[in-house]
């Protein structure tokens, strides 16, 4: 902040800014022109960076939704009873018949 104040005090001389396609000219202190240009550049650059990161934000949001769906599915599977143990076809019946026939 101190650097900005010193910069403003040192660069107080007025300059004329001609806006060429328009028939306009502005007379401003040099520090206002430079700091204003810096501010506009930061806004334009920040907006461009934010817009270019849109696809990454969209992918991250989709990944969060998929992770939440997977967590819900895991919780549902943990709450449900385990499936009955599968028995081989006729395995128990065959043992009973063999034992009864002896």
Structure description:
The chain is mostly helical and 102 residues long. It has one domain. Helix content is 68%, strand content 12%. It is built from four helices and two strands. The protein has helices spanning 2-10, 30-52, 54-79, 91-101; strands at residues 14-19, 24-29. It has a two-stranded antiparallel sheet. A hairpin with a 4-residue loop joins β1 (14-19) and β2. The protein is rod-shaped and about 110 Å long. The termini are far apart.
Main sheet specs: 2 strands, antiparallel
Quote the distance from N terminus to C terminus: 101 Å
Order of helices and strands: HEEHHH
Instruction: Report helical residue fraction.
Output: 55-70%
Principal-axes geometry comes out as rod-shaped
Note the total helix count: 4
Uncertain stretches: none
- The chain-level structural class is mainly alpha
Mean pLDDT figure: 86
User: For the CA atoms, what is the radius of gyration?
Assistant: 38 Å
| Number of domain units | 1
DSSP strand count: 2
Assembly state: single chain
Strand order, main sheet: write it out: 1-2
Q: Beta-strand percentage?
A: 5-15%
């Amino acid at each position: 902040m101190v650097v900005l104040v010193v910069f403003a005090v040192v660069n107080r001389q007025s300059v004329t800014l001609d806006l060429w396609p328009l028939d306009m000219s502005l007379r401003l202190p040099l520090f206002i022109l430079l700091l204003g240009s810096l501010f506009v550049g930061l806004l334009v650059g920040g907006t461009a960076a934010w817009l270019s990161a849109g696809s990454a934000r969209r992918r991250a949001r989709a990944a969060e939704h998929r992770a939440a769906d997977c967590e819900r599915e895991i919780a549902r599977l943990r709450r449900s009873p385990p499936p009955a143990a599968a028995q081989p076809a006729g395995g128990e019946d065959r043992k009973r018949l063999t034992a009864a026939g002896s």
